[in-house]
From TrEMBL:
Pathway: Amino-acid biosynthesis; L-arginine biosynthesis; L-arginine from L-ornithine and carbamoyl phosphate: step 2/3. The keyword Repeat does not apply. It comes from Aphanothece hegewaldii CCALA 016. ATP binds at residues 10-18, 38, 119. Its EC number is 6.3.4.5. Residues 176-394 form the Arginosuccinate synthase C-terminal domain. This is Argininosuccinate synthase. SUPFAM superfamilies: Adenine nucleotide alpha hydrolases-like (SSF52402), Argininosuccinate synthetase, C-terminal domain (SSF69864). PROSITE patterns: ARGININOSUCCIN_SYN_1, ARGININOSUCCIN_SYN_2. Residues 6-166 form the Arginosuccinate synthase-like N-terminal domain. Belongs to the argininosuccinate synthase family. Type 1 subfamily. Homotetramer. Keywords: Amino-acid biosynthesis, Arginine biosynthesis, ATP-binding, Cytoplasm, Ligase, Nucleotide-binding. It catalyses: L-citrulline + L-aspartate + ATP = 2-(N(omega)-L-arginino)succinate + AMP + diphosphate + H(+).
């Protein structure tokens, strides 16, 4: 008895998702498999991937260009939230998962499928992000995860595929597991599983080694409107072009590498290497512009919101009521976050060196120590007395 009649499978063209096609049909009695590959700027040849899916037994192979949606509806909201998981990782890979989940659910409805499937294993974060995202969007649809249940090693998986006529992949000389999209790359496995092993230069693609970066600094002016990145060096750009161009200019200067031990959703630690040049610089620049345009209490309160926001994305809760509520708060805070931030790129560093906004609440006449100082210094003594009074009373009662 099959688990489903027609299934839409999230498809990358790799070993696991390709073997999922015959496995679903042979072992689980699925009649028809439709594959869906999302073009998120990963640079893969999606045409050959389509052909591979059809050769492997799919009745239809879909490729969806979702780059603009990915940046506009997923990356940009995360930038407005300054979302960093564990205060470091800008969620470049995690942000793709709720979008793919939505594409799966939409395709299942369009093609009359009664289930969706993915090739995630039982140790990773992506299974959580897919499963929870899909159930949030359609709580009635079945979610199948063959690779989580089949218990095969990679060698056994390849052998299983060969039994059903799948081409054996060329043996890769690289032991690394790499995921790429427009926002960045994540690299893990192989020698990197030893936390003391320095990442070899060969794993990087988007960022240059410091020795190969220009010997002169470069400046880039990033324009924001209501918290959304809109321009580079005064030129208004569409979301995909802005990310692509900023990736190139920042990566050229060796900016955007992360090497971290992170806490996975399933409770284990993993060593991850990330390249996310544009995303890291945009978050840093956006946060700086907020410091110019938001009041201190809003800025401080938003920091706690940002940490929660990053956790929600990492943990697969993009389509959750808390995330929706936080979006409303963030929207309100961004009404005046419009302006330009100047970033200096040099030898692996990206430093904010200037910022301006028509909505700035920085007052030079109050901040200056020069003769134009408008601050009433006489008011300070009374303020300090009132501000420090609780501490003074506490001290007199406890030290007396």
């Amino acid at each position: 008895m099959g688990r489903a009649n027609r299934v839409v499978l999230a498809y990358s063209g790799g070993v696991d998702t390709t073997v999922c096609i015959p496995y679903l049909k042979q072992e689980w009695g699925v009649n028809e498999v439709i594959t869906l590959a999302a073009d998120l700027g990963q640079g893969d040849e999606l045409g050959p991937i389509q052909e591979k899916a059809l050769r492997s037994g799919a009745i239809e192979s879909l490729v969806v260009d979702a780059k603009e949606t990915f940046v506009k509806d997923y990356a940009f909201p995360a930038i407005r939230a300054n979302a960093l998981y564990e205060n470091r990782y800008p969620l470049s890979t995690a942000l793709a998962r709720p979008l793919i989940a939505k594409l799966l659910v939409d395709a299942a409805e369009k093609y009359g499928a009664d289930a969706v499937a993915h090739g995630c294993t039982g140790k990773g974060n992506d299974q959580v992000r897919f499963d929870v995202g899909i159930m949030a969007l359609n709580p009635k649809i079945k979610v199948l995860a063959p690779a989580r249940e089949w218990g095969m090693s990679r060698e056994q998986t390849i052998a299983y595929g060969e039994k059903f006529g799948l081409e054996s992949p060329v043996k890769k000389s690289s032991p690394f597991s790499i995921d790429r999209n427009l926002l960045g790359r994540s690299i893990e496995a192989g020698p990197l599983e030893d936390p003391m092993t320095e990442p070899p230069e060969e794993i990087y693609l988007m960022t240059k080694a410091i020795a190969d970066t220009p010997n002169e600094p470069e400046y880039v002016d990033i324009g924001f409107e209501k918290g959304y990145p809109v321009s580079l060096n005064g030129q208004t750009l569409d979301p995909v072009s802005l990310i692509s161009q900023l990736n190139e200019v920042t990566g050229k200067h060796g900016v955007g590498r992360l090497d971290m031990i992170e806490n996975r959703v399933v409770g284990i630690k993993s060593r991850e290497i990330y390249e996310a040049p544009a995303l890291l610089v945009l978050i840093d620049a956006h946060r700086d512009l907020e410091s110019l345009t938001l009041t201190g209490d809003v800025t401080h309160y938003k920091r706690g919101i940002e940490e929660t926001y990053g956790q929600l994305i990492y943990q697969g809760l993009w389509y959750s009521p808390l995330k929706e509520a936080l979006d409303a708060f963030i929207d309100k805070t961004q009404e005046r976050v419009t302006g330009t931030v100047r970033v200096k790129l040099f030898k692996g560093t990206a430093k904010v060196v200037g910022r301006k906004s028509d909505y700035s609440i920085y007052e030079p006449d109050l901040a200056t120590y020069g003769e134009d100082d408008q601050f009433d210094h006489r008011a300070a003594e009374g303020f300090i007395y009132v501000w420090g009074l609780p501490t003074k009373v506490w001290s007199s009662k406890t030290r007396g």
